[in-house]
Amino acid sequence: MTELPDRRLLLVHAHPDDESINNGATMARYAAEGARVTLVTCTLGERGEVIPAELRHLTGAALGEHRLRELTAAMRELGVEDFRLLGGAGRYGDSGMMGLPDNDDPHSFWQADVDEAAGLLTEVILEVRPQVLVAYDDNGGYGHPDHIQAHRVAMRAVELAADAGHRIAKVYWNRVPRPVAEAAFARLAADLPGLPFAKSAAVDDVPGVVDADRITTAVDGTAHTAAKAAAMRAHATQIEVSGPYFALSNELAQPILTTEYYELVNGEATGETDLFAGIGPAAGEAS
Ligand SMILES: [Zn+2]
Asked: Record-annotated residues binding Zn(2+) (predicted)?
């Protein structure tokens, strides 16, 4: 039997940068606490829009290679050693935004066979044997094809892994409680004149915003604020960071949240502050 840490967390994301934006504080916290944190990213995000003018010559495979280096740097900031591309780097292509012809590219993740992709993820699950999995909701948080597909693949892999003998004890979706988002955007509105961003995004631009009663779990990663911001900065083609705020290529400012929120979807919970709450060291072991 391979030696594995007692607590094992697997996160499934669509593109390099999604993990740092959504879960950077959570990942840094659990990594610092000695848990095994495993990230599976489904595509290299090679259709992402590049922010810095001096890097805009990067497109396609060259951008994918660059974003893998950014991801590597971000994981160094978060203290996460185990990060992988689903099926290996380049196996699945970025599908582009919903409705673009890119969606029809047979190499795109959107066109992937869900069972086949889920089979690749199941191999990781059976190796790492996580007790906790974090994924997107069924709209992928905000409707991007790769995020929707990442949801489908993650949820199917949960089933396939259970069939193969490893039941994941807790499955979570990334969330942001609406009142938290509203308060953060109110602070942002007050700070906006001092920021390098001309405009603010809106609450509904944030993936995964739901009413507060849907939230089961809040992970306080405030102690890892600097690591999260540094990881986001490492994704320099995609993210511009200024203090506790950031913007994507649309240049709309958003708050960086350092308490990160989750909805448990395969059980009942309220008021949790730990994704591993209720899980003993032996939980999730195949018997
Ligand atoms: Zn993404």
From this structure: 15, 18, 147
Backbone angles phi, psi at 67, to 5 degrees: -70, -30
> Which among 39, 32, 35 is positioned nearest to 11, based on CA atoms?
39
Q: DSSP characters for 174-186? A: EEEEHHHHHHHHH
Instruction: Write the pLDDT tens digit of every residue in 165-192.
Output: 999 999 999 999 999 999 999 999 999 9
282 C-alpha to center of ligand 1: Å? 34
**Pairing between β-strand 82-85 and β-strand 36-41 as defined by DSSP bridges:** parallel
CA of 17 to the centre of ligand 1 (A): 7
Which amino acid makes up residue 85? L
Measured distance CA(282)–CA(287) in Å, rounded = 10
Ion ligand 1 neighbours (CB, 5 A) are 14-15, 18
Cβ contact 48:58 at 8 Å: no
Q: Which of 64, 169, 40, 208 is nearest to 117 (CA)?
A: 40
Q: Side-chain half-sphere of 96: how many Cα atoms within 13 Å?
A: 13
DSSP symbol at 82: E
Give the DSSP letter of residue 272. B
**pLDDT at residue 238, rounded to an integer:** 98
Q: Are 179 and 218 in contact (CB under 8 A)?
A: no
